[in-house]
Every structure is written in structure tokens, then in C-alpha cells.
Design brief:
By secondary structure, the protein is of the alpha/beta class. The protein is built from 25 helices and 20 strands. The two termini are about 50 Å apart.
Length: about 750
Amino acid sequence: MARAAIPATAPADPVELLDTELGKSGLTAAPVLKRAGRRLGWSTVRDLLFHLPRRYDDLREMRQLGDLVWAEEGSVVSARVRVVDVRVEPGFRRRTQRTIARIEDDTGTIEATWFGRRYIEKRLTAGDLVIVSGKLKRFGRKLTLDNPEFQHDTDEADLLHVGRIVPVYRLTAGLTASRLRLAMREALDRAGQGYPEYLPPGPAGRGGLPGITTALEHAHYPSSFEGRDAALERLAFDELLALQLGMVARRRQRGRDRARPIAVDEDTDATLREGLREALEGRVGRPVTLTPDQATAIADIRADLDRDRPMLRLLQGDVGSGKTAVAAWALAAAARAGLQGALLAPTDLLARQHRDTLRALLEPLGIPVELLAGSLGAGDRRRVLDLVGSGMAPVVVGTHALIQESVAFAALGLAVVDEQHRFGVEQRGQLEAKAGGHSPHVLLMTATPIPRTLGQVLYADLDLSTLRTPPAGRLEIRTAIRHPDDLDRLWAFVRSEAAEGRATFVVVPAIEESDDADVVAAESEARRLAELLAPLRVGLVHGRLKAVERDAELGRLRDGELDLLVGTTVLEVGVDVSRASVMVIMSADQFGLAQLHQLRGRVGRGDEQAYCALVSTAAASSLQWEALVEGRSAPQATEQARLIAVARTTDGFELAERDWELRREGDVLGLVQSGLPRLRVASLQEPRHRELAQEARRRAETLLDDRGAIRPGHEALARELTSGWLERVHAGEAASAT
């Protein structure tokens, strides 16, 4: 195949071409690539090179046409053939026109059919020798290849679409598979072969993995699956190395920062713990003791606060595990030391809930708690700003309003960030910057557990405390899966709960009606339930409402003005309504395991027994669901397995491990929320890739100096991390909780 001439206006230098916009690259079909890039995330030739195949088709084996009579229908077959003739059969519309070529070899003749592709007639001529690869179809005794790829049989080294291991890419409108393969081949020839190597061979670099140019070549056009695997292993290692370099660098940079030590002696520690215990007892109306996990977390935080290096600790625990009590201890410790503590929450409603909880816990200890949120009136806002600026507000709870320029702390010593995945690195940094010349101690909190093996990679740059054991006396949420045929019984139960003053959430996957009859929509469901359950008072929340409107509806439910609230996944995080005892999730098979677990956690926050009903048609009846949950039947689909897992346990850590087994880590419970970037190549479910992650960690430790900078001699790696394909992983806030 003749290579296209390089346009005079395009960069000749391969390195310069890498960062050239596709529209100016001179690549064949550059305008098409530019348009496609807007939808597929490309802008430069480098971006194109790292648009890796989503799978590979092995089309190396050549079949004889006479043997295809024994081939399985639907299988993809390849053959060397001669074109006998080509004809076009018109259809009612252009898309239904058929181009049909009779093709033959020494053993037989069949037809190849293309729909809506008139250009095929111009590219194939009687007598042409071609290699075809396509899906085999049968019409009675007649065989045909359906929309096959083909390439003229000239030089085997030039085969791109047939007769080899063929890459299959993600496409978009206007971009065909063959055109993208041609463009990728051209990009590899003109730029890929000159890609600067940023990891030398040997133990200080890439080990025994192939060089970057070889890896790119074999990732797109492998001559063997062994070569492809080695190429993808190199690219996976590079991603993991970039991730670990970012984590190690941030940890070392923070190690050079200085914080105000918060010393807590034994007497103060005992006073704070006892004061919190008494406040908790007064709040819940029964005896309370700290769980062993809470006690351990407090001890770890106490040791962190005593140092002049800023704490960076993640407090991970399921809903109801007691994270707020631990955070209250830390805030009280800062206040007793004469410093200020701030708690950053993602929503106004959650900030108010935290304010109320912390007031109940801390004001008996003589520590006032203030609120700074966007919904405050001008007078209240000025009052709180004055208190914060003068140091008279030892604890302040707020939303993004806390990080605005107008907010100035007198002596910020501790920053607590709730639902930490909802805030970016820059936002957390803005809060930390308000500590003046010192860095505040930082406590991050999350209710989204992740698998242990993944946590070793994800949280490598911070210290971790885990709350596994729920406080004594907390009742486990009873969960059942129900078929829609049983909804009458379910609504009767909702009525009985409402009669006792308890509230219900009904969660649906969509706001409006869709073409999918199995997907329940919020607006129509709210209208239906208001009529069906009258005189129960029904409200509605969804993502199109303004935050203040959503908070108002949630407030009405909390205050007893509503009996039932219909909502979408906006209810997933940050909703604390103690009177809510029932969670009904409609079309539950439409939700991920993480969402199901988080939604269930919206109930059971009071002392009453709570219930969760997962409504799904993924099994034929409620009886069949019971058989599946009890293990008398085996699940036949992933959506069944997800619901069964949720019905069997309320342990978020156990569910995280189960989700780890069911999916790639990009979708695993809490992972997208936790902040890790979606890796293109590396898959931490693969044992070999977990080994690579550990090796990448060791390599990162040696490549960085004590300031967190790349050591001299590795300038090419530094450039790749700041302007190459690894920049997204290395610099993205998703790479770290910090």
C-alpha cells in the first residue's frame, strides 16, 4: 500500500507532529478526524495514538470457500478470493441499496453483500484479487458474507483490515473503522516511530518491558497476541507509574509543610470522650459507648495532631458507623487548643444537618458551632464572617461558601471534609490555604468503601482509618427484592409506616418517561403515588430542581410535612432524615451496586427498624427472587447478582468486594466517587497489573527526590507527566484524595 505524501504545511519532525492539532496534522482525512475528535476526546496526533483498540479480531486464518458450508453461522471468516462480478440492487432508500459481489476461489463461490455503500462498486472490479473478512450468514443453502472488510491482495505487510490481528476501535458518526485504521497507521508511521522514550530499560526504568514505540506499534497492529500483551503491559505500567508518582510526590510535598501541633493530653482526651459519650446518649436516649474502631481512629488522629507535620487522614466507614462522632472529637481537640476547625460539606442541607449534630455534641462541652452557607441572609453571613475572622467561632460548618475569598480564619488548625470525593483538589487546597502561614491538619471522610486490594493503590498517599463495626443498638436495615406484581402489599406497608409517623423514600432511575417500559420515571410516579396513596402527602425531588428547592422538599419530609418523597439519585448522598424508615427503589436493576447501597443508607438513621425494597422485573416473581437470595437458584445475569448481593448484606465493605468480582474497577463500589481516574489500560482486577502497581510504587519512590520532584536524568519522564499522555493520570485530582 502506498503511503500518503506528507503535506508541505505539516510538521516533518515526529516530536513536533505529536502535539499538532489533528486539523493541521496533514494526516489523510484530517478534517474527519478533527470532527470525530470532538466527540471522542482527541485534539492532537498524540491523543489519536492513545485511542487504543477496545478489542482485537483474529483474522489471520484463511479459509477456503468450499469449507464454509461447515462453518458456524455468525462466525467471522477470512478468505483469499477473486472478484467475479459486482452489481448494485436498488432499494426504497439509499440505506437499503445493496452492493453484491460474487467472489470465488478454487473450491467454491459465494456472495459478499454491503448495504448502503455504493462506493464499493468503484473499489471492486471483476478479476481483482482481494482478502475478505466478514460475518457468515445463511439463507437456506446459500452462503453470504455480511458487510465484510476487504483489502486488495498485494503486500501482506500492508494488510490493515483483513488477514491479520485487526484492531477494533470505538467509533463515532462519520468515522468508519477502515478510515480510522488507515489514519492510525499513518500516525504511527509519521509520529509514533519517533515518540520520545521516557523510561529507559533496566531496573531504574521500564524493566524488561518493550520501548514506547514498540508498545504503540504492537498495541495497534500486533503481529501476535504475545506482542500485544507485552505492549499493553508496558502502557499499563506507565499509567500506574504516573499514578504512583503523583501520590508519592504529593505525600513528600506535604511532608515539607508545617502545621500547628494540637497536643491532647490524657486528661483532655478522657474529658472529650466522656463529654461526647454523654452528648450522644442524650441525643439517642440510650447508653452509648465508642466502638473499638472509633477508639482506634481517635487514637490515630490524636497522634497525628500532636506532630508539626499536617495530618492527612481518610476516615472511611459505612453509613451509621460513627464517623461524625470521631470528627467531633477532632474538632473539639482543635478548639481546646485555641485553634479553629472547619467542616466542609457538599450541600447546604448536609451542612445544616452537620451543624445541628455538632451543636448537640460540642455545645455541652462549651464549644459553639456556626454555619456558613450560601443560603444565609446578608446579616447572618456578616455576623459569622466576623466571628470566624476574630477567632470567636471555634467550629464552623459550611459549603463551598467556606472557601470564598471573603472568608478569613484567625487560626484554622483543622479542616474536615465530608463526602471528600465531592470536592476537587483545588477546592480542598483553597480551604487549606486559609490557615495562614501553616497548613491545617486535614481529616477526609467518606461513606464509600472500596476493596482492600484497590485501597492499597488508591490511598497510598494518605493514612487510613476504617470504621467497620456499627455502634451498639443500631438495627440492621431489612432488605428484600420484590416483583412489581407485589406492589399492592408494599404500598399497604408504606401506609402503615406513615400512620406511625414514619416516612418513605421512593427512588426511580429517570425524571421523565422513556421508551423503556421497565424504567419508572419520577414525575409520573409522584403523580401516580399521590393519587394511589391519598391522603398521604407526596413530594418530588430530582436533578433539574435548584438546590434550594431540593433542600426545601427534604426539609418538609424531615419536619413531618410530607409522608413520602419520590426522587432520583440526587438522594444518593448527604440526606439525613431520621424519621425515614422505608426505602423503595423502583427498577432497581437499572442502578449500580454502589448506588443501591448508598440509597439504602438514607434510611435507618433513627432508632426504629428500617426497610428497603428493591423492585425489579429481572426475575419472574417475588418467589423467584426469594429463591435466588436464599441460594436455591443461581443468578443468570449480572443485574440479578447485584440485587442479590445487596439483599444479603448491609456491609458496604463486603459489597465492595462483591462488586470488585462483578465489574471492572472503573465501576466498582465507590471507586468513581473515590476519585481514581478511569485508567485506559491498567486493570487492577488483573493479578499481573496489581504486581505492576506495587513495582510502580517502588519505582516512584526512587525516581522522586525528598521534595517530590523528578530526579535529574529523567527529564523526558517529567515532560511526559506534564504534557504527554500520562498527564491526565498524574495531575488529575482523581489520582489522589489530596
